[in-house]
Structures are given as structure tokens and as C-alpha cells.
Design brief:
Layout lengths: L11 H9 L5 H4 L1 E3 L6 E5 L5 E6 L5 E7 L5 E5 L6 E7 L2 E5 L11 H8 L11 E7 L2 E9 L5 E6 L12 E3 L4 E7 L6 E7 L25 E2 L12 H10 L7 E5 L18 H15 L4 E4 L3 E2 L12 E5 L6 H13 L3 E6 L3 E3 L19 H4 E2 L4 E3 L5 H17 L4 E4 L2 H5 L21 H17 L4 E4 L20 E3 L1 H12 L10 H4 L1 H4 L5 E5 L19 H17 L3 E5 L24 H19 L13 E8 L4 E6 L7 E6 L5 E8 L3 E8 L15 E4 L9 E7 L3 E7 L2
Parallel strand pairs: 15-16, 15-27, 16-19, 19-23, 23-24, 24-25, 25-26, 26-27
Antiparallel strand pairs: 1-2, 2-5, 3-4, 3-6, 4-5, 6-7, 8-9, 9-12, 10-13, 11-12, 13-14, 17-18, 20-22, 21-22, 28-29, 29-30, 30-35, 31-34, 32-33, 32-35
Helix pairs in contact: 5-6, 8-10, 14-15
Length: 735
Amino acid sequence: MSAVAPAGQLDRNSAEALAAGRPLDAFAVLGPHGEGTDRIVRVFVPGADGVEVVGREDGRPLGALAPGLASGLFEGPVTPGGAYLLRIQWPGALQETEDPYAFGPALGDLDLHLFNEGRHFELAEALGANVVSMDGIEGVRFAVWAPNAQRVAVIGDFNSWDRRRHPMRLRPSAGVWEIFIPRLGAGTRYKFDILGPDGGRVPDKADPVAQQAELAPGTASIVAAPAAALRWNDEEWMAGRADRQSSASPISIYEVHAGSWMRQKTGAGAAERPLWDFLAERLIPYVKEMGFTHLELLPVTEHPFGGSWGYQPLGLFAPAAIYGPPESFARFVDAAHRAGIGVLLDWVPAHFPTDPHGLARFDGTALYEHLDPREGYHHDWNTYIYNFGRREVQGFLIASALHWLERFHVDGLRVDAVASMLYRDYSRPADAWIPNVYGGRENLEAIGFLRHLNAVVGERCPGAIVVAEESTAWPGVTAPLPEGLGFSFKWNMGWMHDTLQYIEHEPIYRAYHHDKMTFGLVYAFSERFVLPISHDEVVHGKGSLIGKMPGDRWQRFANLRAYFGFMWAHPGKKLLFMGCEIAQEREWNHDTEIDWHLLDDGAHAGVQRLVRDLNHLYAAEPALHETDGDPAGFSWIVGDDRANSVYAFFRTSGEAAPLLVVCNMTPVPRHAYRIGVPKGGRWREVANTDSRFYGGSDLGNDGSVTAIDTPSHGQSHSVQLTLPPLATVILRSED
């Protein structure tokens, strides 16, 4: 005769599934079940000696749970009543807490619907780990998208990383798993334990929507403090941001790798201070004094390998732990805004690394990426490509963009590797890519994603900008939606390549490459451009910017100064990578800081002074920035003097004083060089890169010249100029 099982006892198969961490609807077997006198409570706490159930309000005993059919399983009837607590006796400790399996669904149906549609733009408030209150109890709600998983559990310090302890509830309509664990808070470390569709366990996964991450080499996610914990004092900046970032505004960007701009000195307390707080004290005043209007940060999203400089990120919602917690990054942005400096972030939605704790094969399937390597794998970078055609993935990426723009008040995003997104055959042989539905090479899903991104940012983030790093001739990158892609600006990679190739030639050969400096004006107004001298030009064996300059030491510095003068006078917003402004001699190394000691040398200090003065001139002269996107604001006056390697052009803007820009790209001074101008009177020299203050020979025009009524170059008047060697001069009409 078989024994009768105690009332409410869990069957052996289910008990063993709990004990082994096998697939099981945990909420169907754990927690409270039944009503009235039939009410039972069942908990699974491996390692506990016993469990008692007590009233939450008065602590009165409601029942002692008996051991079940698996070690760690406790179950039994309890006195009817309201909310209860579990009093768990551990070896040497007593824990009193609410039962996670006594709480109902943690996410609302609207959250799940919006996520399914790819339109949950506050995704970090729903998925991931959030400090919330349920039924009046504080705790953390965990939620993760893993639609193909058989089982998902959250693991962390709070459960000794035991994958059996906290299996989650599946919300099948969205493929989202969730659980609310009471009495947890910010700072808790956690990951997800996942069984794939074949029942195999995938590597423990960091949270794709984590808002904070563990410091490397750790790979756990961390429960972040709520957004309400961030304090902002930048109302004035945010209200006027749109005017500061328009196509008619001066935008001069200082590109920075946060970890190698300047290192904190060692000493008491230095290691405990977040890098962002140090940079707020040192970097922001420097940028302001140098006249830059914006900082652009190489990716600060969490990334597992520092040598990627952030361009292989895994945590698209989490500031990189190595630089400090989220609160410190918010303080940095706030300090920049109070100083009148905008903050742009490099943001990488094109691909992600294959690290096992990351997004790769997240639930045992190709969830975020394409399965077919012809669509889903970048051979150049050993990374996976996002599946832009999947609504949930589009929503995930757009929510990441908004997270930085809205939660951290960032002023814009520079979208990395746009060209690789637009073309299915990007950097692929003919047999290694799949055409689109029309047989073409365009990635229609990525195009749709980029348009969706720019539409949402334009609607939700007034004044914010989105900049494309796009290196092809794709038409309409900055054209309005829906015909164009809707970006605010585009990096002018063609201008950068052409002009750097030109300036690397010895001056005697420049006559044969004259068009390298003029060709950019053929298309300069087809898009809203940023002229980038970025980190890409001073890494991977390319040397430094000053190292590209030919000639002896004096000529190299003169070349660089002349090039900067040409760049700042050329139509287009400006971007310069850190260290270039002091003519750093060596190639950038992310493991060491900029060679600030070079400023003890007059030549290096002179280049820095020139960049500062060019920035201030650029902001002060409407003709240099208001018509960056208008061909009416630019005209060549001398574009064909190959023999002398001289270039001259006008920059104009409405009623503002016109500017004459003249570049002599040889070391030979030119005296009495006649150039036509549209009006007589005095033309004052407002910039001369050959000035002694910059380390030059101080040849010039004694501060000004007077135009005479001798026609030249199709103009009614002309001036005779002294053109210094390897120099750019800028003159402004004073009459």
C-alpha cells in the first residue's frame, strides 16, 4: 500500500526540476496557492535549514513549512490571512523577506505591446533591472527578452549565483521573462542564466539593457540608481541648445578619448575619484579656453576590451565602468553645459562583439543578429551585425540612443560606421553577401532603421543632433525625411582624405596635386558637413598629424599651421582629435595620456595658440559659420594657381563683413601678389598662421592693406598682398 502524499506536496518531477534548474513554470508551483484553509506556500531555498511564514503587518506565525521532495524545497499549509513574510533560517543567520513568487506580473501589457512593436522608447525603464515598488514593497524588477529560451533565471550576489533560486516568469506575448525580487536595491550585481531552445545552457549573460556594469575584468551587470537620483542644473543650456547646434551656428568639436586625455595623478584618494569628476575639473575648462564649442567622446558605452576604444560595445545603456558610475557621467555632462560646452557621443549601432557574456546568440539563437554570416558577421571586425529588420532590435537600438539623449542630457550622437550599415556588400567579396528583396546592394532594413531613429530623435529631443560617419557618396544623408536619411550633419571623409594627401606631398610636387584642395568645393554644399581630423588619422601606423607634414622641423610646423588655417576657413563644421592641437609628435596611444610636456616647446605651444585663436575667430565671424551649407557664402577668387600653390576664396554671409582667405602652400614668400576684391578701402589681417605668436617667421601685411580701384580676377578692386611661406592669411573688409 503506497503512502499518501501530504496535502499540497509538489510532485517529484516538478520538485526535481526545481532542484536541477530545469524548465518549469516556477510561478505555477512556488509562492502562495489556494484560498482560505486550503492556502499553501511553497518556497525553494537550497541550503536553508527551515522556513516559517509570518504575517507582514504583525509578525504573527502563520505556519512552519515542511521539507519537500527535493533538498531546499519547503512547503505546507498556512493560516489564511493577508500578505506574509518568509522567515528563513540559514546556517548561522536568520533572513526575513517577502516571497518573490507572491507578486503578480511585474510588467504591464502596454509595456509588452510597445516592445513588440519596437516602439518602447523608455525601454530601460521596463526591461533590465529597475528599483521599483510593488504592493508597497521596495525591490528590483528584472526583465529580459529571450523568446526562444526554455528557462531564464536571474543570478547574483543576493542568491549566491545559484541558478536554481530565482527562475523567472515568461510573458509569452513578448518573449520577455520577468521577476520582482523584494528588498534588493541599487548596486546589486546580477546576470541571467538561460537555457536555450535545445535545453542547453548558454554562457551566463550580462543584461542587454543594464544601466550599469561591473568593472572589468568582471562582466556582471549592476542595478543602477533610479534616474531621479541624477541632479541637473543645465536648464539654460537645454533651452538654448537648438540655436547653438543649427547649421548656421559655429560648431567646433574637440574629439576626446576619455581614458587617455590626461591621467589622474596617483595619491591619497585619487583612485577612488571617478575619472568623470577629474575631467570635469580639467577637461571642460580646457575646452572652453581653447574656444571649442563641443566635446565629442569616443564611445563611453560599456565595452569589454579597452583596445577597441569603445567601438565594440556590449552595454548600450551603461556608461563604461572604468570611467565611473552613471551619476559621475551625469555630473560631467551637467558641468559641460554650465560651462557652455555641448557633449556629443560616438554611438555604435552597426555591430557588436562576440563575447560569450554579451548579446551573441543571447537565448541560444541569433536573437539580436542575423544567423547567416553573409548578413550577420563582419569579417573586418570579428563582430555580429544587428538584425535591423526585427522590430524589437530596432526598438532596442533607438531606446539606447534616447537613453543617452534624455537621461544624460547628451546633445547629440555621432553614428559610427554608417556606410557599413547602408550596403549589404560592404567590404565583402561577391559571393559573401545576400542582395535585398529587389536584388540590390542597399540594406533596406538599415535604411529604415536610420530614418526611424532620426525621426524619433527629432520628435522627442528638440535641439539634439545626429551626425553620420558615412564615407560614400550615398545621396541625401542629411536631406530631410522621408526622402533623405534625416541626419543633422555628415562627416566629410572625402575632404579629409584629399587634403591630407595633398599636405603630405613635398611643396615642390604640390602643383601636380592642386585639385586635392579644390575638389571638396564641388560637393561641399550637397550635405551639411563636418570636416573631421579624427582619431582614425593618428592610429594604426598612420603616425601623428604633425608627422604627416613634409620638410624640416620649421616647415613641418608651418605646414600644419597653414593646414589648420585652411580647414577653419573652409565651409563645414570642425572636428579635431585631442593632441593634434599641440602637434603631438607620436601616434596616439590609448594607454598613455597626451604629451602635455611638449607645450614647453614654443613650436608646439604656438600651434595650440593658433587653434585657440582660430576657434575664437570662427565663432566671432558670421561669414565663417553662418553659410556653411549655402553655396552663396563661398566663392573662389584664385583656384587655379598651380605654379605657386596659392588658393584664395571669399567667405560671406548677408550683411556681415566679407572675408578673404589666402593660402600659400609653398615655403616661398610671395610679394605683391595681386588678388581681386569686391570693394575698396581697408582690409584688415585678422589671422596669419605665420605670426611669431604661433612660431612663424612673422611675415605679413603689417596688419592691413588698402584696396585700390584696379580690377582683377573679375572684381572691381584689388589688393597686393605679401603671402608668407607655408601660411594662411585671412583678411576682413573694414569699410
